[in-house]
Amino acid sequence: MSQRLVPELTEKVRTRYRVLKRIELHQPVGRRTLAHVLGVSERVLRADVEVFKEQGLIEVGPLGTSITESGIDVLHALDPIMKTLDGRAEMELSLAEHLGIARVVVVSGDSEQSEDVMRDVGQAAAHVLRTFLHPPCTVAVTGGSSLAMLAELMPQATSTQDVEVVPARGGLGERHELLANTIASQLAARLGGRYRMFHVPESLSRTTAERLAQEPTIAEMIDRIRGANLVVHGIGDALTMAMRRGLDEETVSHLTVRGAVAEAFGYFFDAEGHIVHMMNTVGLKLEDLTGEKMVIGVAGGRAKGPAIEAVAHAYRMDALVTDEGAARAILKKGEW
């Protein structure tokens, strides 16, 4: 009703929410950089920044502008309102029902179109993980850009916690910042916890994988990984991940013929969630995603829609964090 009565008020709330949100994601940030991120002039931005300063929502230091605790509280209070205004609340309910996932979070935008949206996905995933975190506990994480963003944007704990973070699988050879080992160490530091490394190549022959799994130190680490209370993982497009994993042409051709659309945990799935190929990796297996273990999937971008839907058919997820681009691709409803 208020939107119809005073539409300009709603638009002003949207604008200021967006500005404050970008300050939170990029802090400390200078006004010129912030204006560039938002696509507005510094002159237009100045008025909103002054209001935020007067209200104690931000603070300006030598390195730039940062959000205060009061500012974070305001954002949290506005989140459900903004979701209702732009239709994401209804989208989350529809997606949860369609995929059979209890909790779905959809951030605004499409990760393929904007790195800021990817940051939003990472921040939302960090928030979801915190709500599931009940020390003492062990968290297993995969590699990839979505999980790297989650680790970067996890708020810094002010005290130590009895939380151990472990890589879900072995993995060497990727960009260092995207490795599960790197993400585990960064996330543990943010959570005030501890971490364990797992220096095992990701792609092995079956014989080598079986032999390594029998080594006492590796077997002990595998037990820790499989006993994790929480699993946070990314979801990949099958052929993109096949190339990234360095699979040979014959295997890639096999994936294409079998209709592979998704990859997670070294498994490749078709659109119905059937396994069409499995890499010989050491670490977490699909059969480990059972019982009381909480499983959180993180992925965004329109192209990831089919992959997200496929893995939702393949195994249980307790929560999914994604963006509007992927959500629209999955729901395939013009009214969105």
Number of domains: 2
| Helix and strand element order | HHHHEEHHEHEHEHEHHEEHHEEEEHEH
Number of helices: 15
| Strands ordered across the widest β-sheet | 3-13-12-7-4-5-6
Backbone shape:
globular
Strand content: 15-25%
Got a strand count? 13
CATH architecture designation of the largest domain: 3-Layer(aba) Sandwich
Tell me what you see in this structure.
Helix content is 49%, strand content 16%. The chain starts with a helix and ends in a 5-residue tail after the last helix. The strands form 3 sheets. Strands 3-13-12-7-4-5-6 form a 7-stranded parallel sheet, sandwiched between helices. The chain is built from 15 helices and 13 strands. By secondary structure, the chain is an alpha/beta fold. The mean pLDDT is 91.
Which terms would index this structure?
336 residues; Arc Repressor Mutant, subunit A; Rossmann fold; 2 domains; globular
Topology:
Elements: H1 2-5, H2 7-26, H3 31-38, H4 42-54, E1 58-61, E2 64-67, H5 69-85, H6 88-99, E3 103-107, H7 115-132, E4 137-141, H8 145-153, E5 163-167, H9 180-191, E6 194-195, H10 206-213, H11 216-226, E7 230-234, E8 236-237, H12 238-244, H13 249-257, E9 260-264, E10 267-270, E11 275-278, E12 294-298, H14 305-314, E13 319-323, H15 324-331
Parallel strand pairs: 3-13, 4-5, 4-7, 5-6, 7-12, 12-13
Antiparallel strand pairs: 1-2, 8-9, 9-10, 10-11
Helix pairs in contact: 2-5, 6-15, 7-8, 8-9, 12-13, 14-15
GO molecular function: carbohydrate binding; DNA binding
Family: Belongs to the SorC transcriptional regulatory family.
Keywords: DNA-binding, Transcription, Transcription regulation
